[in-house]
Amino acid sequence: MPDNAASPILQAVEALRRADRDLAVSLLQQALREGAQHGLHWKSVARLAATIGEIDLSLEASRRFAATPPASLERRLHYLGELAHFGRSAQVQTELQALPSSWQAHEAVLHFLGSLSGEQGDFAAAEAHYRGAIARSRLAPQSWFALAMLKRFDAGDPDLAAMVALRPSVAKMPPDLHARYLYGLAKAHADIGDHDQAFALYGEGAAFRRGIEPYPAGRLVAMTEALIRDFTPTGLKRLIPADAVEEAVIFVNGLPRSGTTLVEQMLTSHSAVIDGGELNLVRAALIPTGDYSMTGALAYQQRMARHPDPWGKLAADYRGMLAMRFGPVGRVVDKTLVQSHYMGLLLHALPNARVIWMRRDPADVALSCYRTYFTSSVPWSWSLRDIAHFMALEDRLHAHWSALFPDRILTVPYEAMVHAPEHWMERILSHVSLPPEPGVMAFHGSKRAVRTASVQQVRAPISITRIGQAQALRAHLAPFYEAYGR
After folding, report:
1. Which residue has the higher pLDDT, 364 or 338?
2. Helix (H, G, I), strand (E, B) or coil at 455
3. Domains of the chain, CATH where assigned
4. What is the pTM assigned to this prediction?
């Protein structure tokens, strides 16, 4: 690292190794005060700040990375992506307009514009941008993938023929790009009913992803066993109660593709709820507990023995992160996936928090997850057997937490909800202390950005057509059924 910010940055990394989040934040603030206004090292600083939930610090470090000479479109787009990720929509538009004219029609800019349009529900504009990017680039595997996710293919579709023709060239590209292309091509074959070829392609793409990041089965089993063993009524009594305050956040938990985005979209259509998303901020706030275990929680509590409200302190940190993301006023939805790993500490630190836990037919979830190219780290989704293994662990954690906190966790079966949405929405609103409003049932008209794989589904009215889709593909899902065993 070339400037005098290097020392506090390295010290911040060391502080995090000791689970001292507060010191790490202070050191990163010092690094930004004392450091240069540009430099390639700011990218890693931005990533570190985002990991600990310091959104403002992360964006400032990303801005400095983007400002590093010589001018680079790649670095500017990285900064734009971070702004979009953290909901800075107006700033994104300002930065886009400030791009040099020579960059405005670059395929990477067009692809970025396509992503923004898709998140806003303007699928026609998104398709036009993706096609523009494809026209300007010989390969553009990311744009082909995005287009494949957006459209429905028909037999004889020229887009499918064009994608197939690219395969030898894409095979020479890095594994992550190759995998993304294969998922897009698989989706095209699934659209035309060629499920044998589709599953073969999904399998190839998933194999690339497993090679990049294997599924840590043993670690997750050990963690699950420890959570169930240690977080009991007796165990929780060892933790100092947190001061109760009125809670602005609504938690929506569940596996990917289980209906969490649908419920989030309905809740954010309520006048009292300003926004939501997959925030991943609880994990950041709980960093002082180390590994999020009961042992780590007790060690944190001992270190904070002189603090009048150690768990309220972590809750305040979390609320501060929410304020950085959404502003200080209004209720928000945190639908970070798989918060089951932190649920005990989450509900202890936030004693007035309420959780909506979505559950869906396991085979339908497995099918949807296996066919989804998650842009985040979801290593259990890259094998049907791993999906079954992970889902079985989640079943155990759902049973454990819902028995431990029966009044605070409302389990919502996806199938029941889409058959009787008004009934279930009434229960959900009551559970989170929101008055009924007719607008929540018109959620599909919302213009808020949706940054998940369910972006198209939540732009349409509730439908039962996706229930039971796995049954028709039971033979292809045989490894899941064999491993899941129920």
Report:
1. 364
2. coil
3. 217-468 (3.40.50.300)
4. 0.94
